[in-house]
Amino acid sequence: MSDLENFLLEVYLVVLGVQLIYHWLLFQKLAFAKITPSKGTSEPVSVVIAAHNEAARLLALLQGLAAQNYPDFEVIVVNDRSTDGTADVLRKFRQQFPELKTIDITSIPEGWTGKKHAIKQGIEAANHDLLLFTDADCSPVSENWISEMACGFQPGTDLVLGFSPYQKTPGILNQFIRFETLHTGLLYLSHALAGKPYMGVGRNMAYRKTLFRQSGFGGDEKYTGGDDDIFVNRHATKDNTEVVLSQDSQMVSIPKTTWQDFFKQKIRHLSAGKRYHKKDQTRLANFTLATLAGWILFFWLLAVVENKALILVPFAIRSLSFYSIFTRSGQNLKVKLAYWALPLFDLCYTIGYPVVGLIALTAKRIKWS
């Protein structure tokens, strides 16, 4: 082999080694987490939901919340400038669900984005310290959703992170969306279990009102997105954050049905990453770049190096490590995927994620749709 090939082979082995370190120091935390029965709690809960033109999807969530098996809770839906029938849906459902409180917003103050302002109004109207959040296009897996998430609040806990998968529907797009969602869950839940929480998803997370009162959205009011992950990034610590993994604690969300809508959603989600703490950006970037470099060097070296075993064996070890942990994590969270397609999804995600991330970092205007 030439000197260049020897050098690139060394780099190849290093980046594969970096991936293995992430697999077994971080990701195994979720893969091998023990999901134990939740301890009971009766602390009052305020469920807060921001809704913008959600008339077609809001009813399923309200029905799921009305059926919750929890002794003391209220539901606050903030109707943010909706122009469809959202207000009518809320008005009709309130007649059969007295725990439902609604707030109608017709305008937002300067310097605020719609969703953050809606969430702030919901928090201010909440009667209880324990705040549980989800989105209007979600529905709880079970009647014990509130109970399971509330049980995450142990003495000293201010933040509870849950998992929110997407509904299973036919098609390759849905398979990839659910792969990407599990991949995201593997990242943020494993980090939190390792004492390094850096984000959560607004579809299923909780925190105390007293925590929000400390600094609110901390000057990020003007940015679209970040009401969940940036808030967690600002406030979460290894001591004040808990993770709930039981299937009953999950919130299922409606997935996008076109690639265009999916990419727009991911750009909106990833745009918040540039405001993460530098240490979190660095940790995530190191794994992303190591994975991307691993795939690129795998194909390049496989084409030029005569001894293919030098390339195939290390990559097989890396792949077996990642796919076994990924599959075990999915089983832990009761996520059913076409695991035979993992290599294809892995490659597509590895190439596509940095591209979408760069678009998100440079995007100037991102809307809450």
Low-confidence blocks of residues: none
How widely separated are the two ends? 54 Å
Largest sheet: 7 strands, mixed
Shape: elongated
Q: Taking strands numbered 1, 2, ... along the chain, how are they ordered across the largest sheet?
A: 3-2-1-4-7-6-8
What does this structure look like?
This protein has two domains: 3-31 and 279-362, no CATH class; 45-256, Spore Coat Polysaccharide Biosynthesis Protein SpsA, Chain A (Alpha-Beta Complex). It has helices spanning 3-31, 58-66, 86-94, 114-125, 145-150, 172-193, 209-215, 229-235, 259-270, 278-304, 309-332, 342-362, and strands spanning 45-51, 73-80, 100-105, 130-135, 138-140, 159-161, 205-208, 241-243, 251-253. The mean pLDDT is 91. The strands form two sheets. The protein has a seven-stranded mixed beta sheet with strand order 3-2-1-4-7-6-8, sandwiched between helices. The chain is α/β, with parallel strands linked by helices. It is elongated, with a radius of gyration of 22 Å.
In brief, what are we looking at here?
This protein is α/β, with parallel strands linked by helices and 369 residues long. It is built from 12 helices and 9 strands. It has helices spanning 3-31, 58-66, 86-94, 114-125, 145-150, 172-193, 209-215, 229-235, 259-270, 278-304, 309-332, 342-362, and strands at 45-51, 73-80, 100-105, 130-135, 138-140, 159-161, 205-208, 241-243, 251-253.
Topology:
Elements lengths: L2 H29 L13 E7 L6 H9 L6 E8 L5 H9 L5 E6 L8 H12 L4 E6 L2 E3 L4 H6 L8 E3 L10 H22 L11 E4 H7 L13 H7 L5 E3 L7 E3 L5 H12 L7 H27 L4 H24 L9 H21 L7
Parallel strand pairs: 1-2, 1-4, 2-3, 6-8
Antiparallel strand pairs: 4-7, 5-9, 6-7
Helix pairs in contact: 1-6, 1-10, 1-11, 9-12, 10-12
